[in-house]
Amino acid sequence: MQKTYNSRGGNNRSHFAPRGGRNNSSRSSTIHASRYINKAIAVEDEEVYVPKNTFADFALNSRTKATIEHMGFVSPSPIQDQTIPAGLQGRDIIGLANTGTGKTAAFLLPIIEKTIDDHASVVTTLILAPTRELAQQIDEEFRRFSAGQKLFSTLVVGGANIGRQISQIKRGPHLIIGTPGRVKDLIDRKVLRLQNVTTFVLDEADRMCDMGFVKDIRSIESEMPKDRQTFCFSATMTADVKTIVEQFMRDPLTVSVVKNQTNDHIEQDVIYARDKMHKIELLTELLQRPEFEKVIVFGETKFGVQRLADNLEKSNLSAVAIHGNKSQSQRERALKSFKTDHVKVLVATDVAARGIDVQNVSHVINFDPPKQYDDYVHRIGRTGRAGKSGKALTFVIGQER
Question: What's the predicted TM-score (pTM) here?
Answer without folding.
Answer: 0.69
